[in-house]
Design brief:
Strand content: 15-25%
Helix content: 25-40%
Number of strands: 3
Distance between the termini: 92 Å
Number of helices: 4
Strand order of the largest sheet: 1-3-2
Radius of gyration: 27 Å
Largest sheet: 3 strands, antiparallel
Length: 169
C-alpha cells in the first residue's frame, strides 16, 4: 500500500505499489516496518523574540516526555539489536531539543522516536499540547509568525492649495 505521494504525512493513498525485481538494484526501497519499527521524526516550533526561551524549552521537554516518552525503552532495545546486526554506531532515542535563531524568530526543533504507525497522530498531539501550554504562559512564550517591521518611514509632504477663482458678471 502506497504511503504519501499525493496525501501528506505518511497516510495511505489507496494505491498498491509493486516493485519489480529490476528496480530493487537501481532504486532504494524504504521499509518502515522491518528490523527497526521506529522512526525519528521532528517538529519545528517558531517562538517569538522576547519570549522566555528557557520556559519554552522546559515546556517542550515536558511535552516530549509525556507524549513520546513511552517509546524510549522499546526503541532503545530494538536499536541495540538492529545496530549489532548492521554494525551501526549507537544513536540516542531520547527526545532532543535544539535551538537556532534566525532573522524572524527563535526556532526550537523537537526530535523524537515514534512508532511508524502513529507518526502523524503523534505530531498532532505534540503541536496541540504545545499550543495549550504556550497559551497557559500568559504571554511569556508566544508562537512567532512572519511580520514586517518598518524601520524608517520617509517623510511625505502633501501641500493642498485651493485657488480662488473670481468670476465677473
Amino acid at each position: 500500500m502506497e504511503v504519501g505521494e499525493w496525501v501528506s504525512a505518511d497516510l495511505y493513498s489507496g494505491r498498491v505499489v509493486r516493485v519489480a525485481n529490476r528496480f530493487v538494484f537501481k532504486e532504494p526501497v524504504f521499509n518502515y516496518s522491518g528490523e527497526f519499527p521506529f522512526l525519528w521524526d521532528e517538529i519545528t516550533v517558531p517562538v517569538k523574540y522576547g519570549s522566555d526561551h528557557r520556559m519554552a524549552r522546559k515546556i517542550l521537554e515536558k511535552i516530549a516526555i509525556e507524549t513520546v516518552g513511552d517509546y524510549r525503552k522499546k526503541a532503545h532495545l530494538a536499536w541495540m539489536d538492529f545496530s549489532k546486526q548492521f554494525l551501526l554506531e549507537d544513536a540516542t532515542v531520547e527526545p532532543l531539543i535544539s535551538l537556532v535563531t534566525n532573522d524572524n524568530w527563535m526556532e526550537f526543533t523537537l526530535r523524537y522516536v515514534v512508532d511508524f504507525k502513529v507518526r502523524r497522530s503523534t505530531k498532532d498531539k505534540l503541536f496541540s499540547k504545545v499550543l495549550d501550554e504556550f497559551e497557559k504562559t500568559e504571554g511569556k512564550v508566544k508562537f512567532a509568525s512572519t511580520t514586517l517591521q518598518l524601520v524608517d518611514v520617509p517623510t511625505i509632504n502633501v501641500n493642498l492649495e485651493s485657488e480662488k477663482v473670481l468670476v465677473n458678471s
